[in-house]
Write a structure and sequence with these properties.
Elements lengths: L2 H17 L7 H7 L4 H12 L3 H19 L5 H7 L4 H12 L3 H7 L9 H11 L4 H6 L2 E6 L2 E10 L4 H14 L9 E5 L11 E8 L8 E4 L2 E11 L3 H12 L13 E4 L8 E9 L2
Antiparallel strand pairs: 1-6, 2-4, 2-5, 3-4, 3-7, 6-8, 7-8
Helix pairs in contact: 2-3, 8-11
Amino acid sequence: MNENNYSQIVNQAINYIHFNVDKSITAEDIANHCCFSKYYFNRIFRSIVNESVYSFIKRMKLENAAFKLRTNKRKAITEIALEAGYSPSNFAVAFKEYFGISASDFRKNSTITPKDTYKATVEHISRMEKQEDFFDQIASKITIRQLLPMLLEYERFIGNYYDLAKAWGDFCSYAEKRHLIKEGTLFIGISYDDPLVTDENNCMYDMCVTVDAAKGTNVHKLESGLYACYDFYDRLENLNKAFNEIFSLWLPYSNFNIDNRLPLEVYKSPLDEEGRMHIDICIPVV
């Protein structure tokens, strides 16, 4: 089995963890799902992801809990702790140990102190939050839509979201060589991590194209569902600001909650002469 096969297996494991992050899952469960022994699979996983399956699951659970603290002000910290598989007291210890701040203080501040890359995003949200009509400003850009089912082939990127330009270029070349691009093909991005929570150099992202039939092994099958779609038309360096307008200033005060389906960036135009692009940021809601 070559490295590409191992990467595909690890991708399947990561997908399984993502969709079951609120359940009690163990490293052995993941290994069984991928049809490997626990110890052998952990070696494969660590060689690709640079952390053990156990550490990855723990990190996903704590970062998912932090994201809920940001986006769902109505849910009690105790409930979020239980969903992450912790007793309230153990959650308090684990959260502070991982983030260096208590869960209650994090909820008040809604962010870990970011590195320089994302300071502009935090400052943007802080300025906007001081405006009386911030919610209405963002809501005017959002429509609630039922998206149709989609079949996607993808390649996975792990790193800093600001380094995605080259990865997208390589993916587009790869898709062209495999004749995946034709009239009506959509390019779609999937962001798994919030760089205001996750280490900005360890964020995960899928570059996708819609296909009629799956020819590869990295495939997402998306069911029809309800999404809050934010109409973005700006320079790509401002995309993270738009995401955080949704997560920090719209979602917590709306009548919706995010679920564990995948958020989508639906690319609707190439870059224009001023470096702007039209993208629908589609957040799964219930």
